[in-house]
Amino acid sequence: MRSRMSPTHLLLRVKAFFLSLQGKYILIASLLTVFLIATLGYFFVQREEQLLIQQVKEKGKLLAESMAISFTNALLYEEIGLVEEAGLLDNFIADLMRKEELDVVYAMVLDPQGKVIAHNDFTEYGRVYTDPLSRQAMASWHTLAILSSDSDASPQLLHISTPLNISTKRWGTLRIGLSLQRLHQAIAALTRRIALWTAVFALLSLGGVALVTRKMTRPIIDLARAMDQVDLQNYTLPPLPPPRSDEIGTLQTSFMQMLQRLKEAEEERQRTLELLVQTEKMASLGKMAAGIAHEINNPLAGLLTCLHNFAAGHIPPERREEYIGLMKEGIQRIATIVRQLLDYARQQPPAFREVELSQVIDQTLALLDYLIKKKRITVHKAFPSSPFPLEADQGKLEQVIMNITLNALQAMEPGGSLTFRAHTENNVCRLSITDTGPGIPPEILPRIFDPFFTTKGPGEGTGLGLAVSLSLVKQHGGHITVQSRAGQGTTFTITLPLQQRAGRERPLTRA
After folding, report:
1. Beta pairing class for 428-435 and 417-425
2. What is the pTM of this model?
3. d(CA 430, CA 440)
4. Which helix (H) or strand (E) holds 381?
5. How far is 402 from 270, CA to CA, in rounded Å?
């Protein structure tokens, strides 16, 4: 059964979507589309409203001018005595007010002085209108159409006025008020229809924008996913879509070229690192030269003594076997020392396999045995009772332990102690190497892993030992930390994963 997504998780997914390139493009394009459609809809409504108002004005003017003929004739007939005073005017106004489809609110006839001589409201008879609208109507010899609102903000009224005249003879002014409520209702209905169609078109546009955006950003997303799946060991890509001829194709080509340059740069860096490792090995051998010479010189002296005694005939026959055994032992000792030196100095391709950490440390200490004895250094080892497999490059691991141990031996005064501790936790191995030397001053502690940084005198150090060691440990996916106090010794802690990534043939330094 599918679990429901929590609101927080949903919010994070929505946020991540709108922070993506696709989400930003959809959001911006959608806002622009909605803004443009809404703007066009607004101007369309405004235009239709102006057209409808203009139509009402034209119809109002036509109505007033056609009615003015009848009112002018009635006033003329009254003046010459053919009809009773105001009788026809009242009838005309009453007929006009009964036509509901015309939306007439009021109708009145004013004499040249602004006095009401006919009105749909009988209480208005005899009133003199002096408001600006009436004065403007009485002063004009043309039909006027003026929009205004009532004081209580009721729907607008259209005030139509036309002169009642024949040539220069003017009997007064006809004023008609038309309600625009029906017009506003029509405009409101039109606005709703336009808003509905705008919303529908906006949704369709958003859908189109989403489809176009997805089609445009899909190659970029595919390329980004391919970049995430790059094999950082061999700099190989998963299958990519066919090359394109647009900007995305240019981006894909540039990415492939960048990947090739990175691969070449990494290969060059690996070669440089191997040279540095080999250089540091040779430097270490130089530092151990005196001890190695002493280790070889002792059995050689014994061999020379035995050979001299054999040549002089000083060895009794019954002791010849004993002397031959001593000579074999000396030769084996020399062969062992030479083999250890060759194994240490040999440049080998990186190879990860299971190694026993205690054996690696023992082999390293064997090369430093003379220096340890010369300075009377006491070596302590604290390891788990049961051995644990550690997947590593044995030669590189020996180089790291050699660099740190040799630095510790050189830093300590005679009679010091060197402690190796190892334990495992959370699928990692931690090896700490602690000496009783003078410690590292705090002001230079952050710089000890910098290439070519050294506190030793000229010719005593290359400044590459710790930098190379850190790089080699990072090749294994681990790291090195250091703790030191002046006068209290130094502890280097090497943290390594127990198992390397599957299929790892050539390590990548993540320095």
Report:
1. antiparallel
2. 0.45
3. 21
4. strand 378-382
5. 21
Rounded mean pLDDT of 478-490?
A: 89
Q: What is the CATH number of the domain that holds 141?
A: 3.30.450.20
Extract the tokens encoding 167.
């040539």
Rg (CA), the chain: 53
C-beta of residue 335 within 8 angstroms of C-beta of residue 307: no
Q: What sign for the dihedral angle of Cα 27, 28, 31, 36?
A: negative
Closest Cα to residue 383, out of 355, 426, 419?
419
Tell me: pLDDT of 510 over 50: no
Q: Which two tokens stand for residue 462?
A: 């290359």
Neighbours of 251 (CB within 10 A): 14
The DSSP symbol for 450 reads S
| Alpha-carbon span 337 to 332, nearest angstrom | 9
Length of the chain: 511
Calculate the average pLDDT of the chain: 77
CA atoms within 13 A on the CB side of 426: 2
Residue range of the domain that includes 417: 354-511
The alpha carbon of 418 is separated from its chain's Cα centroid by a whole number of angstroms, namely 49
- Specify the 3-state DSSP secondary structure of 78: helix
The answer to whether 462 touches 275, Cβ cutoff 8 Å, is: no
Domain count, the chain: 2
Is 319 contained in some domain? Answer: no
User: Which residue is associated with the tokens 């040779």?
Assistant: 282
End-to-end, the C-alpha distance of the chain in Å comes to 46
Find, among 416, 455, 431, the residue nearest to 382 by Cα: 431
Domain boundary pick from 186, 206, 222:
186
DSSP 8-state class, residue 236: B
Amino acid 340: pLDDT: 55
| pLDDT band (50, 70, 90) for residue 101 | confident
Please check the confidence at residue 375 and state whether its pLDDT lies above 80: yes
The predicted-structure confidence for 48-58, as pLDDT tens digits, reads as follows 888 888 888 88
Give the pairing type, strands 479-484 and 157-166. Answer: unpaired
Spell out where 17-154 has E strands: 104-110, 116-119, 144-148
